[in-house]
Amino acid sequence: MKPYLEHKLISLAACLAIVLAWYLTSRFAGLSEIILPTPGAVWDRFGRILDGGYKGHTLAEHLGYSLRRLFTAYGLAVVTAIPVGLLSGCLPRLRTALDPLISFYRPLPPLAYYTVLVLWMGIDDGSKVALLYLAGFWPMYISSVAGVARMRADYANGAKTLGAGPLQIFLYVTVPVALPDIFVGLRNSLGFMYSTLVAAEMVAAVSGIGWMVLDASKYLQSDVIFLGIIVMGLTGIVLDALLNLAERKIVFWKGRE
Questions:
Q1: What is the CATH number of domain 40-250?
Q2: Which residue from 31, 58, 104, 197 has the highest number of Cβ atoms inside 10 Å of its Cβ?
Q3: What predicted TM-score, i.e. pTM, was given to this entire model?
Q4: What CA–CA distance (Å, rounded) separates 9 from 5?
Q5: What is the pLDDT of residues 167-200, one digit of tens each?
Q6: Do 204 and 118 form a contact (C-beta atoms < 8 A)?
């Protein structure tokens, strides 16, 4: 059996074991469905929400609102954090100027400054996008700087001997060398931003998967809570898999250096 297929079968068996343990516990442990709904109850709720929605929005709409906020902030972070990080890696003075700012806000929990963003921008999508942008900026920036630091001097020297100028060295040597680290930052940022998005929707929102889970908790609708958690987890897996696929296509030489 090929290792790839074997790993997939092991993962599938682990997932089935978790679902089976969930079913047995909810069915025979004597717990109230408010504490632990059965898989069947969650599946039934899934069908009802698909048909009738939840609080005026379908499940697809709730997920769409969340993903729109996420992708807007993610795109803004990609087009700013990566170029700034690459330039900071090449220009020590720029890095020296930005490092104190990054070091100051990087350890702060995003929800700590979200209250300020809500005061400034309200509870609409603007404050959430700004929060996600700040949460995702620094992992991309730091990974881009680290990627430039990986470049060996003989790579640039070899390009110079072939007549390459500074811009050509940056585009055709520095950026490709930094790409593996950049993708590490892209994946870390996506996970961090997604978890931050759910938390933000729980604090101040009227739509989205995070809001749906919080609203359901007010009415002890455990089946909706479990459904929301499962949807969030599966969405995160799909997004990470897409990034992983893009990395394999773009950084095809990774592991062959």
A1: 1.10.3720.10
A2: 197
A3: 0.85
A4: 6
A5: 787 878 888 888 889 999 999 999 889 888 887 8
A6: yes
